[in-house]
Amino acid sequence: MSREKKTQIIDSLEQVFSRCSIGILTDYRGMSATEMTDLRRRLRELGIECKVVKNTLARLAAQKAGKEELVNFFEGPVAIAFGYSDIAVPAKALADYIQTSKSGMSIKGGFLPNRLLTAQDVITLSTLPSREVLVVKVLAGLQRPILALVSYLNTPMRGIIGLLQARIQQLEGG
């Protein structure tokens, strides 16, 4: 590979490292080319980019992007899945693929824009509900006290209304 081509790859990877919301590093040892193609297709459908690059180029790109802590992950065959929106989606997709395909792939770790993730962190992230579900749960949690307050405030009013209606009936009938 020419020096110019290597520089282009490093620059491209550096941009991806800086731009992504999550990156998950995997060891794809034992996977066939067909399995890797299937994985890439599945990830692409979810808006996740999967790259296999030379470790030396990935180390240089990580250093240029200010992610020096990733350098130690680039040992052996490494594929990186980059997510650009919900951080749980790539983790779930990879965990599901590993579980259903019974391939030799394993998660080595990952990173967020400001934090390094261990393999266990990524697996934990894969068990979280989606962002939309979490937002709904938070909104429901915020709504509960308001509904309770409205109910408490309405209870005395219902009593007064019932009392007034009884008095009206009494006056009409009597």
Describe this structure in words.
- The chain folds into two domains: 3-128, Alpha-Beta Plaits, CATH 3.30.70; 129-174, no CATH class.
- The longest helix has 43 residues, at 131-173.
- 60% of the residues lie in helices and 16% in strands.
- The protein starts with a helix and ends with a helix.
- It has a five-stranded antiparallel β-sheet with strand order 2-3-1-4-5.
- α1 crosses α3, α2 runs antiparallel to α4 (88-101) and α4 (88-101) packs across α5 (119-126).
- With 174 residues, the protein is of the alpha+beta class.
- The chain has helices at 3-19, 33-45, 55-64, 88-101, 119-126, 131-173, and strands at residues 22-27, 49-52, 78-83, 106-112, 115-118.
Number of helices: 6
CATH architecture of the largest domain: 2-Layer Sandwich
N-to-C CA distance: 104 Å
Percent range for β-strand residues: 15-25%
Q: Describe the strand arrangement of the main beta sheet, using strand numbers.
A: 2-3-1-4-5
CATH third-level topology of the largest domain: Alpha-Beta Plaits
Q: Shape from CA axes? A: elongated
Order of helices and strands: HEHEHEHEEHH
Largest sheet: 5 strands, antiparallel
Using the CA coordinates, give the radius of gyration.
Answer: 27 Å
Mean pLDDT: 87
Which structural category do the helix and sheet elements fall into?
Answer: alpha+beta
Kindly give the count of domains: 2
Q: Which bin fits the share of residues in helices?
A: 55-70%
Poorly predicted residue ranges: none
Number of strands: 5
